[in-house]
Design goal:
- The chain is of the alpha+beta class and about 475 residues long.
- The chain folds into four domains: about 110 residues, Beta-Lactamase; about 110 residues, Beta-Lactamase, CATH 3.30.450.20; about 110 residues, Beta-Lactamase (2-Layer Sandwich); about 70 residues, Arc Repressor Mutant, subunit A, CATH 1.10.10.
- It is built from 16 helices and 15 strands.
- The protein has a five-stranded antiparallel sheet with strand order 2-1-5-4-3. A five-stranded antiparallel sheet has the order 7-6-10-9-8. A five-stranded antiparallel sheet has the order 12-11-15-14-13.
- A hairpin with a 6-residue loop joins strand 8 and strand 9.
- The two termini are about 65 Å apart.
Length: about 475
């Protein structure tokens, strides 16, 4: 209820002085304004509100006391009040004594049988201050989240690029949680099932296993870092294992570092091993190294075969985007992910050859830096045997949203919309048949179709179990 039920009976004896006192008490700022918008009287606590030049408001136009962007709101308040419309609240800004705008929420009411308006104002500085503090808190949270994300990215990058074997081991079960490539090369050289989930002591043999278990037990009991020498797998190299205990939320983890006592590199990681360039050239998957802008610096033979060019010189200096299925989209998305996260996994797209062939591929990538030079490394895998590379015909419908996504860049938007509609229609019919227990008559009635129309759609969408039963 917005008005009193019987104002004449309950407030009939209210005089002008009492009414003025009530208005001044109910509002933070109260104005009496004539039909032309000139302020005839006002009531406010000047010290509390902090309005600039409030002493000279009487006799001035109300619209001249507000900031420029608030003037249309004052005009609307006066116009609506004089027309007798339902009072509305509008926020306007006044200039403050300190130079900061003061927000005030106003509503205007016309006094009966006069051309005067009574304006009620509420000070919004407290609300504005709370809103500002909320915004600042949100910005602080976003900054903290971004900083933590960047810290994690740097940690991951250092962890992966470290030439020294490093492992993270669960403090309770002593099982390996994480291991960098250097640790995999040293402790799992034969690829005998991987390190993840195995107890660290089981990665060593004989006395070395007991030494590792004793070292972990000592560090767990004392809480202080410790180290010990132990032979590596096969006994051909001796390591100095350094173990530290770290608290992670409510659990403990061991940080294990393996290093040669003399500081050298393990034979599995030394330069004397197989030639890396020859190994990359022999990969069955395409391998491409680009500059940060996507310009190709080197590639292997598998990539040349996919894009149907003869020599590496033809690819060097070209943008990888030239052969990607969605020009202007795919490369930008991949570079943005690499820049933000430092790695990219299983990005699905199409690789187009110079002679028109199309190959469905999955792309994984990472950033490598050495000697101040940054390069992006892309591994491109042909998945056409897993995902059909042939374009879908008009009667062959995608079966999921993922399959619809595969059509982007290969099929026009009009065809994609049509196929999306067909997919929804097919799912809708299948749901109706399931709800009615395969009763085609009831399903047709539920769908608002005739039985004959339903049979036509069953045959069209290849729902043979239902179509053949009739």
């Amino acid at each position: 209820m917005k008005n009193f039920a019987a104002p004449k009976e309950s407030l009939g004896g209210l005089g002008a002085v009492s009414a003025a006192r009530l208005i001044a008490t109910a509002a933070d700022i109260a104005l009496v304004v004539d039909a032309e918008g000139v302020i005839q009287d006002l009531a406010l606590d000047r010290r509390e509100m902090g309005l600039a030049d409030a002493e000279g408001w009487i006799g001035r136009l109300w619209i001249d006391t507000v900031t420029t962007e608030s003037r249309p709101k004052i005009e609307a308040l006066i116009r609506d009040a004089m027309a007798g419309e339902e009072p509305r609240w509008r926020q306007v800004n006044h200039s403050g004594q300190t130079g900061i705008d003061i927000p005030v929420l106003y509503s205007a009411v016309k006094v009966d049988e006069t051309r005067m308006l009574v304006v009620f104002g509420r000070d919004l500085r407290t609300v504005s201050s709370l809103q500002q503090r909320l915004i600042e808190a949100q910005q602080a949270l976003e900054k903290d989240y971004a900083r933590l994300r960047h810290l994690e990215t740097r940690y991951r990058l250092l962890f992966q690029l470290s030439s020294e074997p490093v492992l993270v081991v669960d403090g309770a079960s002593e099982k390996v949680l994480e291991a960098n490539p250097a640790a995999l090369a040293v402790l799992d050289r034969g690829g005998r099932g991987g390190l993840m989930g195995r107890r660290l002591a089981d990665c060593f043999e004989g006395p070395a296993s007991d030494t590792v278990e004793s070292l972990l037990t000592t560090v767990r009991a004392t809480g202080r870092a410790d180290e010990a020498e132990l032979p590596g797998p096969g006994g051909e190299t001796r390591f100095r294992a350094s173990v530290s205990l770290l608290r992670q939320e409510t659990a403990w983890v061991f940080l294990v570092r393996l290093a040669l006592p003399e500081g050298g590199a393990h034979p599995a990681l030394a330069d004397g091993g197989p030639d890396l360039s020859r190994l990359v050239s022999a990969l069955p998957d395409a391998f491409v190294v680009t500059a940060p802008d996507g310009t190709i610096q080197s590639c292997n033979g598998a990539f040349l075969d996919m894009v149907q060019i003869a020599t590496e010189e033809q690819a060097r200096g070209e943008s990888l985007e030239r052969w990607l299925g969605r020009p202007g989209v795919d490369l930008s998305v991949m570079l943005a992910n690499l820049h933000e996260r430092g790695a990219l996994r299983l990005f699905s797209t199409v690789l187009r050859g110079d002679y028109g062939t199309e190959t469905d591929v999955e792309i994984s990538a990472s950033i490598a830096a050495r000697g101040g030079v940054t390069a992006y490394c892309f591994v491109i895998r042909d998945v056409s045997r897993r995902i059909s590379a042939a374009p879908r015909s008009g009667h062959e419908l995608p079966q999921s949203v993922d399959q619809l996504t595969e059509l982007v860049g290969r099929v026009s938007l009009k065809d994609v919309v049509r196929q999306t509609t067909d997919m929804i229609e097919k799912l809708y019919i299948e749901a109706a048949l399931e709800m009615t227990g395969d009763n085609r008559a009831s399903a047709a009635e539920m769908l608002g179709l005739s039985r004959q129309s339903l049979y036509v759609k069953l045959r069209r969408f290849g729902i043979r179990d239902y179509a053949d039963g009739e």
